[in-house]
Design a protein that fits this description.
Layout lengths: L1 H16 L3 H6 L7 E5 L5 H9 L8 E6 L3 H10 L4 E7 L13 E7 L10 H11 E12 L4 H12 L9 H10 L5 E11 L2 H12 L6 H6 L3 H7 L7 E11 L1
Parallel strand pairs: 1-2, 1-4, 2-3, 4-5
Antiparallel strand pairs: 5-7, 6-7
Helix pairs in contact: 1-3, 1-8, 5-7, 6-10
Length: 249
């Protein structure tokens, strides 16, 4: 994970800088307001917001942590700080969230829904929309089909082992529309990279959710090897191109 976040921390910095978060949050602040972090992971997005934006004028916000991993929920709870005040730990999937957990002023899912089963995408989108209070702020940030995360995994599936594809931003957007949401699609592009093969290997293994395949094996694999070669320069350094959709509700 250390090697992964040596590069992937940039994903969250980009999201923190993509909008005027202090104003967006302050505009919705009121007594007893609340936020639901869907598939919260280890809390990288609220950490990035606190590091890269000034939230000093945002009043305390009750923060519910949802993730199927109890370990992730505990990690995210441990890094929260003002204005975010941890409240409920919800160890479950979005699809399984009880209906009484609704009326949130803010609901977000940031780089969180890639492994969502295709058959459950519509149910998850409906639950996301239903969790948001009228006039609330919703955001799903997800890599597009053109981004490294999706392109790499498609090449990994073709060249190393078959697996269920990752869910794309385009699929999530369409599911939200089917759920009745009015969605604004904002795109951001950026790159990450490294000349350290150890970092590249750890990053790519996490992208594949498989640490049994070495970087040498990835580079030698059909399809995947060609993709990775396209990411390298003459010095051997890797540069990965990213496009993320910010799906605003």
């Amino acid at each position: 994970m250390e090697a992964f976040y040596a590069l992937a921390t940039e994903d969250y910095r980009q999201l923190a800088l993509a909008a005027d978060w202090p104003a967006l949050l302050a505009d919705r602040a009121h007594g007893g307001w609340s936020l639901l972090d869907v598939a919260c992971g280890s809390g990288k997005f609220p950490t990035a917001l606190r590091r890269h934006t000034d939230l000093s004028a945002v009043p305390e916000l009750a923060y519910d942590l949802l993730d199927p991993s109890a370990f992730s929920v505990a990690e995210a709870r441990g890094v929260l700080g003002a204005p975010f005040a941890a409240r409920h730990d919800l160890v479950m999937t979005l699809q399984d969230l009880p209906v009484e957990y609704s009326g949130y002023d803010v609901v977000w899912a940031t780089h969180a829904l890639y492994a969502l089963p295709p058959a459950e995408l519509d149910a998850a989108a409906e639950r996301f929309v239903a969790a948001l209070a009228p006039g609330g702020l919703g955001l799903i940030a997800q890599a597009t089909a053109a981004s490294h995360y999706l392109a790499f995994y498609d090449a990994f599936r073709a060249g190393v082992r078959e697996a269920t594809p990752y869910t794309t931003a385009e699929q999530v957007r369409d599911a939200l529309v089917r759920a009745g949401a009015d969605v604004r699609d904002q795109r951001i592009t950026y790159t990450t990279g490294t000349s350290d093969r150890g970092v590249a290997e750890g990053f790519l293994q996490r992208c594949a959710f498989d640490d049994s395949v070495s970087l040498d094996e990835m580079e030698a694999a059909p399809v995947l090897g060609d993709y990775l070669a396209s990411c390298r320069d003459v010095s051997g350094s890797y540069t990965f191109s990213h496009e993320a959709a910010l799906l605003w509700l």
